[in-house]
Structure formats: C-alpha cells, structure tokens
Amino acid sequence: MVLFFAAIIAGLVVLVWSADRFVNGAVSTARNFGMSPMLIGLTIVAFGTSAPEMIVSGTAALSDVSNLAVGNAIGSNIANIGLVLGITALVSPIPLKAIVLKREFPILVITSLLVAILFLDYHLGYLDGIVMIVLLAASMFFLTRNNLDAPEILEEIDEIPSESTAKAITELVISLALLLGSSKLLVWGASGVASDLGVSELIIGLTIVAIGTSLPELAASVASALKGHHDIALGNIVGSNLFNLLAVLPIPALLNPVTLGEEVLLRDYSVMLALTIALAAFGYIMQKKGRLGRRVGISLLTAYFGYMFLLYQSLSL
C-alpha cells in the first residue's frame, strides 16, 4: 500500500512538472518555426493545460482501467469548479468578464448537456468519442472566431521565455517522455490503491487522481489571485473543463470503450453538471457586481466537500 501511494505522489509531481516543461518547449519550438502567438495560445497552451488529464486518461485506457480515465475527467471538472474556484474566490473575489458570460459559459453548459445525452446508454464507445471530437472542433471554432478580444492569451505567451530550437526540441522530447512515464506510474499506483482498499478505479479517478491533475490549475489560480492578476482565472477554468469533456473523455472512448455504472451519470456527472450550471447562474446573477465574491467561494467549497462526503458514504454501502 505504501509503495502504491508513493507511486501516486511521485507520478503526480513529475507529471505536473513535465507538463509545464512540455508547454514551454512546445511554445518555444512553435515560435521558432514562425507560428503566431495567438495561434500558439489557442492550441498548444490550451491543450497543454489539460495534458496531465489527457496523458493519464490515455495511459489508463491502454492499461484496461478506462473507468479511472472517466473518473479523472469528470472529477477534474468538479474539482476545478468546487475546489479551485472556491479557494480562489476566498483568497480574492474573481472578476467577471463579459466575454466569459456571453460566449464561454453558454458553450460549456450546452456542451455539458450534450455529453450527458451520450452517457444515457451507460456506454462510452467509438461513436461517442467521435461526437465529442466534433463538438470540440465546433467549440474551438466559436471560441476563436473573435480571438482578438483575448489579450490575456498573448500576455500568457509573452511570459514564456524564448529558447533556441535545439534546446526547445530537446525539452519537448524529454518532457513528453517524462509525461508518459509519470502517468504510467500514477495509473499503476492508483490501480494498486483501488485494489488494496477494495474500491473502484472510478472512485480513485474521481478523488486522488482528479485532485492531483487539478493541482496546476489550483496553484496557478491562487498564485495569480495573491498577485492581483486573477482576472483570467474564470476563463481558464471554463476552458480547462471544456477540454476535459471534449478532449479527455474521448480518449478512453476511442482507445478502450467502457461500460459505465449508473452512478457515473446519476451521481458523478449529475454533480458536475449541477456545479457547471450553478457557476453560470452565479456569474449571471453577480454580473452587475462584476465579480464572484467570497460567499460564492464558500458555496462552491461546501458543494465540493459535500460531494466528497457523498463518495465516502457510497464506500460504506
């Protein structure tokens, strides 16, 4: 058991670090080959922030534990809203941007409802994966139609230092190898813990793995809030959740189709959908104030820990 937990911790640490280096190496390489900063931000950085979830899901699916991959995607979305945004709002109120209310919230809510329909047959298969990939392409199209109104993307790119092509490619290759190795270690440890504790891989994916892969968002959001640069925290979380639904969930669907238990839709996805709708509702209600305050943060955290208690209760049934 101790060895499995050590594998999880080591896997998460290396996974988070290598994902950051992967983004840096990929951005520098793209820069050196003449790709525009806006295109880099909308592709490499956007996918890079979800790299831990994507790599872990792929590894889990190939290791025949697709339920862990599904739990990772859904659990990460729940953690992003309840835990990450909840703590960030407690540290400092989160500004509401008009573009998030008018464009990103509707796309996330509609997408979440459409994916819920795919879950109704309790099976995640090839057709579901293809539909989600199509939805991802459509969502990216709508989100990037007016991408010139997103200066925060350019600012994020500017913060990444330039590197020579040779160094950037070396960093890219090494970090990708570490991503793959650490995800394999993480999945092995998570599967071992699930087996020793007698719980499902789904529960481990919803809790330990989901929280672990959401640590970059939590660290970045809290650090930005403390520095007073937290105005893009909400947009980042919305984008991350969208990628988890449409880029992470298709991975187990396409690599290793899985039959889902009723609890995935009735408990886990329902909580995720409820939190998504609640967050959007808070945004529209608070738009006159222009921010999500500490009361919203407390509400989100309460909902998150309530969900954790619900999972704990399910273990004793």
Tell me about this structure.
The chain has 317 residues and is mostly helical. It has one domain: NCX, central ion-binding region (A middle domain of Talin 1). Helix content is 81%, strand content 3%. It is built from 14 helices and 4 strands. The strands form 2 sheets. The chain has a two-stranded antiparallel ribbon. The longest helix is centred in the middle third of the chain and has 33 residues. The protein starts with a helix and ends with a helix.
Shape verdict: globular
Name of the level-1 CATH class: Mainly Alpha
Number of strands: 4
In CATH, what is the homologous superfamily? NCX, central ion-binding region
Q: What number of domains?
A: 1
Q: Radius of gyration, rounded?
A: 19 Å
Runs in which pLDDT lies below 50 for 5 or more consecutive residues are: none
Distance linking N and C termini: 23 Å
Q: How are the strands of the largest sheet arranged?
A: 1-4
CATH topology-level fold name: A middle domain of Talin 1
Please give a quick description of this structure.
The chain is an all-alpha fold. It has 14 helices and four strands.
Topology:
Elements: H1 2-32, H2 37-49, H3 51-62, H4 66-91, E1 94-95, H5 98-118, E2 123-124, H6 126-144, H7 151-158, H8 165-197, H9 201-213, H10 215-227, H11 233-248, H12 250-255, E3 258-259, H13 262-285, E4 291-292, H14 294-315
Helix pairs in contact: 1-2, 1-8, 2-7, 3-4, 3-8, 4-9, 4-10, 4-11, 4-13, 4-14, 5-6, 5-11, 5-13, 6-11, 8-9, 13-14
